[in-house]
From TrEMBL:
Pfam families: Glyoxalase_6 (PF18029). This is Glyoxalase. Residues 12-136 form the VOC domain. Gene3D superfamilies: 2,3-Dihydroxybiphenyl 1,2-Dioxygenase, domain 1 (3.10.180.10). SUPFAM superfamilies: Glyoxalase/Bleomycin resistance protein/Dihydroxybiphenyl dioxygenase. It comes from Micromonospora maris. It comes from the Bacteria.
Length: 153
């Protein structure tokens, strides 16, 4: 079944909610430096604040422990990722990595070409998030024709 033939998901949006001790720094980093557009912002009593940033299309990537270890080995060379890692697809991994490091992120691993045909970099970023920046080197259609890129077991 091709992606155009798959039934629509009953879920309309994936929203990852992150508590940030330094709210202003996190908003500045993700909205102003990474460039996620602000969709909405709300404030309430006792200085309660939230901003909702548009991160484009959302997916939920579920990996077994062996896959998680393999990804860490390929991208970083050792086990570093916590149980939750946030990944952002970008047009230029190297340039985005440089920009985010200049804005305060810590580079964990430089841009690396992976066996799954993307260029990935690892960063520790504001709000205590471990993130991956990735740049796809092939279209989804091309990738679907390559060995190991199938949804079938």
């Amino acid at each position: 079944m091709s992606s155009s033939e798959q039934p629509a998901s009953p879920v309309r949006q994936l929203r990852l909610v992150v508590e940030a001790d330094d709210y202003e720094a996190a908003v500045r980093f993700y909205r102003d430096v990474l460039g996620l557009p602000e969709q909405a912002a709300y404030s309430g009593d006792d200085d309660a604040r939230v901003v909702i940033l548009d991160a484009g299309r959302a997916t939920l990537e579920i990996a077994n422990p062996a896959q998680k270890r393999m990804i860490d080995e390929v991208e970083v060379g050792q086990q570093v990722a916590p149980r939750l890692r946030v990944a952002f697809e970008v047009d230029d991994t190297a340039a985005t990595t440089d920009r985010l490091v200049a804005a305060g992120a810590t580079q964990v691993a430089p841009p690396t070409t992976t066996p799954w045909h993307s260029v990935n970099a690892r960063l520790d970023a504001p709000a205590n998030l471990h993130i991956t920046l990735f740049q796809e080197l092939h279209t989804p259609e091309t990738r679907a024709t390559l060995d190991g890129f199938t949804t079938n077991p």
